[in-house]
Amino acid sequence: MITQKLRYQPTATFTTIALWVLIPQLAGAQSVNQPTIQAPPIIFNNPNPPDRGSPTGRQRGGASRGPCRQFEALTALVPVTQGTVWGQTVSDRPAFWFHVPSSLTEKTPIEFVVQDAADNYVYKTRLTAPGTKSGLLQLPMPNTAPPLTVNQPYFWTLSVYCDPNKPSAAVFVKGMIQRVTPDAAFQNRLKNTPALEQARLYAEKGIWYNAVNTLAELYRAKPGDRQLASTWITLLQQTNLGHLTTVPFSSCCTLKR
Fold first, then answer.
1. d(CA 217, CA 249)
2. Is residue 187 within 8 Å of 175, Cβ to Cβ?
3. C-alpha to C-alpha distance for 123 and 37, rounded to whole angstroms
4. Which of helix, strand or coil describes residue 62?
5. Of all residues in the chain, what percent carry a pLDDT higher than 70?
6. pTM of the complete model
């Protein structure tokens, strides 16, 4: 009988195990050296308002007394440019954003109106919204309202009737909005573009109402998203609204004609 001597030879199994251990470590080492890709910042290029003279608008509610004192910080999320509260939109029925500093009840109705340059009402609604908490509130124009005409100025007013015994003491904010038509090149840039990038493009073009509404909708849906939070803070800080960056979103109601 011939006896064969057995020699130990490493098998592929050990080689495979070694690679499984080393590959993640190598990948991790490489990722450390990879540059961090950051999204481009949002930059709002505020255009000059049209020369309409007075009134210039009112961004904040101002000092009040009695039960209206809790609403004196009422604020419109609209820039103040050259003393005028105003912004542009590409929407025929835009959405407006406000900071309501105190909860609404049955005894504190709100009124929102949009008027043309001749003071005709384009849209007007008055309603109570009990249970609405303090926070950032969206008030969109409904589809039943007439569309805004391009290149025509419109004036809006939000009033909170906070003193049932004295309606004239209502706290209010007001400003101007103008619908514009973007050029073909800008419209092409918007096509097939993610919503966050659309917000950046609107801001770059100086179209405030669409920039803030697009970004607010995104951030409200994903409040834990760091990129959205950073972009939201940057946009508000550029328009002297930085004190509202930590204010939560609230919900109100469906406006009616």
1. 10
2. no
3. 45
4. coil
5. 81
6. 0.83
